[in-house]
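ok, trying the design again with the full structure, not the truncated one.
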């Protein structure tokens, strides 16, 4: 399986370029490899923070209790789902 390479272009000041080049050389990496590595690390951090949920002990207990009661009827939720589906079907009509 061959990887498709995509290109990312960016512009920066001479000072920032020199800083990045020094850091890359210190790490024993090319500027491209250094930038890619740093961007990947930051992207994973940002997405990890955005996609994870941290709960206090009290909130965790409430969450677990809600999961334990999933089989209870939820008429307001069911009505909201019906309204959403109706709105969605109306929106998709030409």
């Amino acid at each position: 399986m061959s990887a498709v390479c995509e290109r990312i272009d960016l512009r920066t000041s001479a000072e920032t370029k020199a800083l990045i080049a020094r850091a890359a050389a210190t790490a024993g990496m090319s500027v491209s490899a250094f930038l890619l590595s740093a961007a990947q690390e930051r992207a994973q951090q940002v997405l990890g923070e955005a996609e994870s949920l941290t709960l206090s002990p009290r909130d965790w207990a409430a969450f677990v209790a809600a999961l334990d009661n999933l089989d209870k009827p939820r008429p307001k939720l069911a009505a909201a789902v019906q309204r959403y589906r109706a709105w969605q079907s109306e929106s998709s009509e030409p």
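Keeping the full-length input from now on. The chain has a mean pLDDT of 89.
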